Amino acid sequence: MRLWATVLLLAVLTSCSALLVAAQEKTPVAADDKPYPPQLSGTVVDTSGAVIAGATVLVRSANGTVQRTTQSDRNGSFIISGLSPGNYRLVISNPGFQIKEIPVTIGITGVPAPLQISLAVDALSTTINVQGREDDLIGIANSATQGTVGAKEIEDRPILRSGEVLETVPGLIITQHAGGGKANQYFLRGFNLDHGTDFAVFLNGMPLNLPSHAHGEGYADMNIVIPEFVRRLNYEKGPYYGEIGNYSSAGSANIQYFKTLPQSFFQVEGGTYGYGRAVFGVSQKLGSGNLRYGGEAYHDNGPWTHPDNYYKFNGLLTYSRGDSTNGLSITARGYHGKWNSSDQIPVTAIPIVGFFGALNPTDGGNSQRYSLQVDWRRQGANSATTIMGYGFYYDLDLFSDFTYYLHDPIKGDQFEQQDRRWVAGFDAAHTIFSQWFGRKAENTFGLQVRNDWVHNGLYRAEDRVRTDKNDINACNDEPIPECDTSPNLIAVLPAATDLNKFTDTMVGFYVENKTQWAEKFRSVLAVRGDEAMYVVTNLTPPYVATELPGAPVVNFAELNSGSASKFLPSPKASLIFGPWSNTEFYVQGGFSFHSNDGRGTTQRIEPISPDYPFPTPSTPITPLVPTKGAEIGVRTLAVPHLQSTLSLWYLYSASELQQDGDTGGTVASASPSNRYGVEWANYYTPLAHMAFAFDFADSKALFTSIDANDAAPGSPGGKYVPEAVGLVISSGITVQSYKGFWGSLRLRAFGPRNLTSDAIYRSSSTTLLNAEVGYQIGETWRVSAECFNLLNRRDHDIDYAYTSRITPTGTPAFTDVFHPFEPFQVRIGLRKTF
User: 475 with 483: CB under 8 angstroms?
Assistant: First the structure.
């Protein structure tokens, strides 16, 4: 009830705010410019010189805000007036043509010469080349759940951690269950995506997900992202897009940085709990191109009893020439982070360590990522080619403790995960614009290759020092025949649990056709093929089980080394109908997949760990887990200034079985699963300075058979997929540049979720209210304040249910384990542009 009461309160506040602003100010439109002398004028034509009537002409300020909107008349002409002196960007678009952007300057005196603007024919380009959620995507997007978020929308949101840039995707939840330097936890469409298993993340097209990662498959660390450099975020959900392969079953997001910043800037921030941050960005001409560089220094302790003491440093440098259709850019990036962790704790530990306490204060880690990326683009009247190549070095050293004293009451249960890799890859696509039977068609041929040279390891540790452990619960955890005669058998867990070096290679190709079959019907058909190849060399030292009769010897290097491969085809289809009355309809279906950890594909005996304290045979897991889904949706602009989408979706996953980086073994469940749900997203801009957002999603995730492995003790199990988020609500009010002031109020809520397959253990709901307010001082200075968790709720960022022992002499207990959301806090920022 508290959740719905909060939603109702926000809705009332939203309505009152809209009425108040509507009474004070009316939106200026092109017709209101008539009393002013013309400042911008011109004619819109196609490449043959024929005029284009009805073309949309937008004027955007340097920060991306739309200042004026008009259309070309029947002669292709337009006139715009009433602009203040300054730098602007003219954005010209028309269905069936490529969008064009032109920088313009309005001076104090004089009128620029009339412009002659030529738009090239765009056979069927559905690339999202718009600026934000308020822009019209009808005729551009292929589904109701494909969209874009602009820089201004990201700038106007309070952001606690850089990963929350992704929360601009409707229905996506970002949480954290450990120190700030670790990758976020993602939730979308009935998935606990862990750190990215079924959600693909890209930075300017370069993949962030890491396959066969020491901690979790598809690990996507957003700490390398600097929000101030994000030009826009393009997102799409479901397995329907030919150009996206691995990890895209639930969806994907491509974060696009500015090649040239609207303005150079320097910004400093400070706040509660030891928070401090400095970030800068500079753009300048260099020869015939542009140079952009910047960096970020960050520190945060958080509210934890044992401070995170998280330091991170980001730097980037880009040289670019040309534009988004014909150009070249080279980008270098670097990230380094170091932190302590306050990992999740059982609810029973609160009386001992407090709500923000830690049971093992020596947890933490460090990570680095250094990359080089080259983008090349060429486009002519009949074709377009893009080639992107990248390479990076990455490492992580992570210490965690989730069960505390369950297995070894003397040394504890801390473990270390180490991942070091070199990565190289490229993504090439060639598109041919043509006609089929008199209908516009676009055919794209794409090739994507990626190779990871990985060296990772799993170790037992105490106070960040590798050491052997004694598992006193060995017989309770994994009953074996020897336990019948020795029920108190203690297993030795070696410090070196699972060590490997291997190559993880992925080759993907796709062919995609887009055809406008009729004025109100178009299709996007694609087929994709992906080949995963692993060559694994196991480096784990031989193990001698001295506690068992005969002291069996396990040769891991021989048993768990080898190679594996799998090819998987993935057909996809989207049918788009309309528009009628500014409303478009979509029907989609497709196949996709996520890769599995390469170590598990050749593993024939489980590593010696708390899950498998004695030598245990293992069955290699499949390299690729296939998924398939379908969706129907609608997008409408029938209500002026409101873009609304509604979709119903379904997704089937062939298996939930994965390799567990925490133990080195495989984790349940092998059963397939079904997910389905509804999503409703709304973005309303009734006034030039005000925007409202309301996004609603609800989903359900069920195994196809009873899952006893993820059930509460003594339960036969159930069909619920544990930790799958159902209800998600995201809503907000944003006021932009009103008499120098701007601000936003954001509500994020997600409902209770089952923590066990039998639904015996359930989490509580989480409701968070954040706010931001700022004031523009003159032309170059800005001050802002961000407030997080305004209601100071003691909600949970994440919940699990499993067995742990919180003191050396305590009794093991199966209970709710959680990581709290941070309490109310304030951050103040000062920004200078130049």
Answer: yes
